[in-house]
Amino acid sequence: MAEQKEKLKLDKAVAIKYDAETDNAPVITAIGVGQTAEKIKELANEHDIPMYEDRNLVEVLGHMDIGEEIPTELYAVMAEILAWVYQLEKGIE
Asked: Cβ(25)–Cβ(75) under 8 Å?
């Protein structure tokens, strides 16, 4: 029973996009729980899109709407994630 509860916590995903030239802030593009979350993760893998795991952040973002910009309160966290993605893309560890 405890394992099932823990698995449910892990089966959530939120996808964001950010284009510095066209977006004011990162934007929610997908939100999923269960099978939908697994599909989001599967598509990210298929398209070599980096995945960052943070359960607390997913909980907060999961209450937002698709197409909604990330609130200013989360800019610092988003900056850390975007820096991490940049390092991945440049091969810096």
From this structure: yes
Domain 2-90 CATH (choose: 3.40.50.2020, 3.40.800.20, 3.40.1690.10, 3.30.70.120): 3.40.1690.10
Q: Mapping DSSP to helix (H, G, I), strand (E, B) and coil, where does residue 13 land?
A: strand
Distances from the Cα of 29 to the Cα of 17, 18, 51, 56, 87, angstroms: 7, 10, 14, 18, 22
pLDDT one-digit tens code per residue, 49-81: 999 999 899 999 999 999 999 999 999 999 999
Q: CA–CA separation, 27 vs 66, rounded Å?
A: 8
Mean pLDDT of 6-19: 79
